[in-house]
Amino acid sequence: MITTRRDTIKLMASAAGLTAAAPYISANTASLATGSATRSAVPYQMKKLVHGVCYYPELWPEEDIDRDIAEMTKLGINMIRIGEFSWSSIEPREGEISTAFFRKVLDRFHAAGISVVFCTPTPTPPIWLTHGHPDRLFVNADGDRLVHGSRQHVSYEHPAVRTACYRIVEEIAKTLGDHPSIIAWQIDNEIKCHVAEDFSPGAIVAWHKWLKNRYGTIERLNEEWSTHIWSTWYQSFEQVPAPLKTPFLHSASLSTAYRLFNRESIAEFVDQQSEIIRRYSKAPITHNTNPAFSVNHERLFKNLDFASYDAYPSSTQWHSLVFRSDMYRAAKPGRPFWLMETSVSHNGWLGTHSPMHPDGYLMAETVLVYGLGGEAVCYWLWRQQRAGSEISHSAVLSSWYKPTTGYSQVQQVEAARKQLEPFLIESEPQVPEIAVTWSDHARAMIETEPMDKDENFPATYQALIQQWQELILGLGYHRDVRFEGASLEGLKVLVTPAMPFVSEEFLQRVITFVQNGGIWLVGPGTGTRDREHTVPLNAGLGLLDSVAGVETQFVFPLTGTDITGTAANKTLNFTGWCAAVKPAHADTRVLGTINSPLMPDTAFLTERRLGKGKVVLLSAHPTGAEGKAFVENLIKGYAKEAQMAAPFEVSAGTVVCPRVDREGKPLWVVINMDGASGRLKLPGKTLDAISGKTIGSTLNLKEYEWRVLKPGV
């Protein structure tokens, strides 16, 4: 018998005791089925650790190039990233395109043995594209039209803008795509860094086309959004507004859909550029992003070859490097990620700057990124900008061509890179047994409908996911941050916090994971909304009620109510929204109850056995030191039950990056990141891989010190 996708949903629903939903699948959800988690058919073999700089030869005298090459060679820089802001240099007047200067640059660097990542220059369109054409400019959510002078000021939805973008990308790819120096391409630069959703006339035209493609008929849209509320019922797609200013608030369905539309459209823009480049070049393609940017990260990387990110953390913000490395390492399994931009000393632009890095921090940062699965670390930038809005940003060399405070730190990085390289190219990151779910659909919903206003509650979706990731890191477990559509291969515990809409596709994979012995810890705020940002009609948590074996009685905000809960003989305080539930299945156990006459005999923590594994529902967010300790114990208990490997016994501020060599033997990269020294308890005989010396039962690290270990030899 041939089974269809719909049959599969029925089978999985039956196995979990849930009722299958209607077969309608949103455009956002459908894209996850073929998302970025698919492993490459051909295993990737890293040949070197890339040590790079962002370089802008078009801004300086051409005669400086040779001395730049000499200085880079002396420092061990083996890659430059160029081109992303060069549109006006390549096409000073519309249609007059020449890449001759950049070919000469590529020739010189290739002769010197320095590789190149070439970027498409679409983030900074030249003045001729928009002067006299205000309809081509970006319009923000307040209805303000942006002007030329920075970057990302145009509307990528305007046909003339896209035509111009694709024209210059094709000319660059056609004339430079075969150059032997190019080892990779980068599309654009930090898309949606400075702007979010586009409300230009071109965007609104594209919005109406997107709606028609997504819903098919206006009747379906009206039904899904329940538009008779406040008489927002529509007669045609062209009547559906973009969510610009209105007297009060737009429908949640409309606001979230507009975010999804914009993020799908910008991913298609990246796809199209990639398709053009692939006609002329075999080099892999990426984009440098950041979890805070207004993109759908999973969809963005779906058709790219590898993931890369930017990060400019001060020495007290090093956790962000771990979070982003955990996230983008898992984005394209089997392919190392790149840190495409970071500062050698401090971040800065007009009016602000961050503190300078302490001595040794840059080295520790770089070793951390390499150890966690990075192939490349690249500095922004080589030479300090002599003009513009980022003149206060650090660089390797000053504008007057003298070493900066970061120069000696780059020397430290290169010394570390040389020591690390032989070990890391012969190993790969160990697959984690625990992961936190990242859902771009959930993020769009929470941007429309923030989860809480409590000052102690994370203000953004990213901050909430990072809170869970840092909790797991602090417990000593190696972890992933996996996209909603990713494979669950290798995991024993999956933590899914704050996913308002839980799709059928996601549930299919999670049910299989649990039935095979996995433990799914469902965090607060999950399941409270349907796919169109409406309230579920079949159950308080939609299909999640059936999977968790509960019946939701109430969904309400706990912040400021002083309502407590009891679990494990502890009284807990809460923040955020709560789903008060009762067990609805013989296999469901109540582990935590709510203490309030408003919702008697209800629970906030349940556990249901499903096959060989368990579904654990934590439907309220414990707060304070007691709440943090409770959640930590919850994770540790289920990690032990799932027979996860014992966590690393490591001091706070020190990170272990577990890897596996080609013989299947463990290799650990250990780094002190907080500059306060560190300690790691070792499991028996352990060798320092570089010195060959045996280490005792405890490894002590000085501030920003790092080591490569071979445990258990």
The rounded distance between the terminal residues' Cα atoms is 52 Å
**What does the overall shape look like?**
globular
CATH topology of the domain at 434-641: Rossmann fold
Order of strands, widest sheet: 14-13-15-16-23-22-21-18-19-24
State the helical fraction: 25-40%
CATH class of the domain at 434-641: Alpha Beta
- Care to count the β-strands? 31
Low-confidence stretches: 1-15, 17-40
List keywords for this structure.
31% helix; alpha/beta; 10-stranded mixed β-sheet; 9-stranded parallel β-sheet; Rossmann fold
What would you note in describing this structure?
- By secondary structure, the chain is an alpha/beta fold.
- The longest helix has 27 residues, at 252-278.
- It is 31% helix and 20% strand.
- The chain has a ten-stranded mixed β-sheet with strand order 14-13-15-16-23-22-21-18-19-24, sandwiched between helices. Strands 5-4-3-2-1-11-8-7-6 form a nine-stranded parallel β-sheet, with helices on one face.
- The two termini are 52 Å apart.
- It contains 19 helices and 31 strands.
- GO terms for molecular function: beta-galactosidase activity; metal ion binding.
- It comes from Cellvibrio polysaccharolyticus.
- One of its GO terms (cellular component) is beta-galactosidase complex.
- This is Beta-galactosidase.
Brief summary:
With 713 residues, the chain is of the alpha/beta class.
Write the layout of secondary structure elements.
Elements: H1 5-16, H2 27-30, E1 50-54, H3 64-75, E2 79-82, H4 87-90, H5 100-111, E3 115-119, H6 127-130, H7 159-176, E4 182-186, H8 201-215, H9 218-225, H10 252-278, E5 285-286, E6 288-289, H11 297-301, E7 308-310, H12 319-329, E8 337-342, E9 348-349, E10 352-353, H13 361-371, E11 374-379, H14 407-424, E12 427-429, E13 434-438, H15 440-448, H16 461-474, E14 479-483, E15 493-496, H17 504-515, E16 519-522, H18 543-548, E17 550-557, E18 564-567, E19 570-575, E20 577-583, E21 588-595, E22 603-610, E23 613-618, E24 621-622, H19 624-641, E25 654-661, E26 666-672, E27 678-681, E28 686-688, E29 694-695, E30 698-701, E31 706-711
Parallel strand pairs: 1-2, 1-11, 2-3, 3-4, 4-5, 6-7, 7-8, 8-11, 13-14, 13-15, 15-16, 16-23
Antiparallel strand pairs: 9-10, 12-25, 17-20, 18-19, 18-21, 19-24, 21-22, 22-23, 25-26, 26-31, 27-30, 28-29, 28-31
